[in-house]
Amino acid sequence: MVVRTVGGLWARLDPRAEQAARALGASSWRAFRTVTLPALAPAIASAASIVFLFCATAFGVVLVLGGLQFGTIETEIWIQTTQFLDLRTASVLSVVQLVVVAVVLLVASRTRARRERALSLGSDRASDRRLRLWGRGPDGTRSVLGVIWCRSR
């Protein structure tokens, strides 16, 4: 998951910023650390949130490998429901988990959106053009059936 998420953005990054840093005397490591890595931060945050979600909701893995001595919120919900029949506590824990996951996703989304606006990705807006599809309605008037964005190369 991390390779697909980070690799997709990394492949579309404009290499000129790193090349400019190298031309100004930065080493390969410093150019990566000060130019490329901050540009990849949104993708890294997204990948981290996905990994967090997979790990946070891995009920079966925790239960099988850790047993009841190593608990997560999912195993505690299960224990409260099946062993103590305390549905009120289980539902409160479920809502707490949903809130935590929603907050983490919201923070990751806002961080990524703020950082992606500043990035220069490979898509060139000047090469995009719109193709409009026109048609006639039942009453004979012209109407737009749809708008398609075509990329000219």
Itemize the secondary structure elements and their pairings.
Blueprint: H1 2-12, H2 16-23, H3 28-56, H4 59-66, H5 73-82, H6 87-118, E1 128-136, E2 142-151
Antiparallel strand pairs: 1-2
Helix pairs in contact: 1-3, 2-3, 3-6, 5-6
Explain what you see.
A two-stranded antiparallel ribbon has the order 1-2. Helix 2 (16-23) runs antiparallel to helix 3 and helix 5 (73-82) packs antiparallel against helix 6 (87-118). The chain is an alpha+beta fold and 153 residues long. Helix content is 64%, strand content 12%.
Please describe the structure with a list of short key phrases separated by commas or semicolons.
single chain, 153 residues, alpha+beta, 64% helix, elongated
Brief synopsis:
The protein has 153 residues and is an alpha+beta fold. The protein has helices spanning 2-12, 16-23, 28-56, 59-66, 73-82, 87-118, and strands spanning 128-136, 142-151.
The proportion of residues in beta strands is 5-15%
Q: Oligomer, anyone? A: single chain
Unreliable segments of 5+ consecutive residues: 126-132, 144-153
Total beta strand runs: 2
Can you write the helix and strand succession as a string?
Answer: HHHHHHEE
The neighbouring-strand order within the major sheet is 1-2
**What is the arithmetic mean of pLDDT?**
78
Helix content: 55-70%
Rg to the nearest angstrom?
A: 24 Å
| Main beta-sheet strand count, sense and barrel state | 2 strands, antiparallel
Overall geometry? elongated
**Number of helical stretches of at least 4 residues:** 6
Structural class: alpha+beta
Spatial separation of the terminal alpha carbons: 30 Å
